[in-house]
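Instructor's aside before we start: the two examples that follow are unrelated to each other. I chose them only because their records fit on one page, so don't look for a connection. First example below.
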Amino acid sequence: MNPFTESMFVLFAILTLGAWIGQWSWRGISLGTAGVLFAWKGQLEFLFSEM
């Protein structure tokens, strides 16, 4: 499997978990939103480092 496809599967899994965890909140911040944004930033860095 090529690295781009593999990273898209990882991103999909992260978004799915984020949607599930996003139902919980801590101090008014959705844990899912915070986690997805953090993971998305890391995923973008990974994708651009592969180019």
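Example two begins here.
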Amino acid sequence: VNGQVLAQERLLGAKKILHQLHNLKSPEKLQARSYVVPGPNILVNGRISPSEEKIPFSGQNDGPDLIFMHNNVATTNCIIDNVSIVELIDLKMAGSLGWRTVGIIHRRIITP
């Protein structure tokens, strides 16, 4: 993301899948930053922090990069075949977010 290497890009097949996701355009009904399937009780169960939850919808995320993002390409969400990622699972928190938004989350929350 913006020249920053994410840990997930080091997994075989991750770069290809991330580029495929990048090429998906959000449907017209999702032309605002949104989650397709918000995770139930996402703040209560500790999956994300309150500060991470606010980033996608803050005023600083008004860039033109609105595309579908998985938003959690952790190894536990990757189906691997022959040492390469072939599928992503767990679409909780996936949605129309964009590269800039996910980059901000990674820089501020995941890898500060």
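The chain has a mean pLDDT of 73.
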